[in-house]
Amino acid sequence: MSKLMEKQEAWMEKMMSIIEHKEQERMLREEEWRKQDSARIEREQKLWASERAWIEARDAALMEAFHRLTGKEMRVVSENQNVCGNKAMNQNYLRGDMWPESEIARLIQLRTAMEVKFQERGVTEEMLWEEIANKMACLGHERNGFMCKRKVG
Asked: Could you tell me the Gene Ontology terms of the biological process aspect for this record (predicted)?
């Protein structure tokens, strides 16, 4: 019986040492994984920081170029208006008589797309033209419903 107890104790000690060894290996693996993960996160943060810096520099350069471009264009337009002195042309544009071709094309597309609504009863034509004018405004063309209606006829 004592031999059996000794064998069991030896077996238990062996099992405990194996379990402790496996636990230490697991802890080492987890520690290595944490180090790798923190290194990966640090690399990603550096990458994103450099990416963000590049984007900010690009945006700043684009905005500077945009401001220079629009500033020059605005001066050219005002110079042309002063040199020409053509008040009738400016008044025609302000009244809505002058429309760029792209704007007319967009107006026609919107009007055609809303043909069904124009055919419905109970919807006023003025409301539909204002809706078209709002859609034009969303596209960057500042016209009111009356101007749109007058242009399409």
From this structure: regulation of DNA-templated transcription
Predicted TM-score of the model (pTM): 0.38
Q: Which CATH architecture has domain 98-152?
A: Orthogonal Bundle (1.10)
Q: What is the pLDDT of residues 49-91, one digit of tens each?
A: 999 999 989 988 888 888 888 775 444 344 444 444 445 444 5
Contact 150, 131 (CB under 8 A): no
Closest to 138 measured CA to CA, from 92, 99, 107, 113:
107
Q: Are 115 and 152 in contact (CB under 8 A)?
A: no
Long-range contacts of 135-140 (CB under 8 A, 24+ apart): 135/110, 136/103, 136/106, 136/107, 136/110, 139/106
132 close to 148: Cβ distance less than 8 angstroms: yes
Contact (Cβ atoms closer than 8 angstroms) between residue 125 and residue 110? no
Strands (E), the chain: none
CA atoms within 13 A of residue 34's CA, in its CB half-sphere: 6
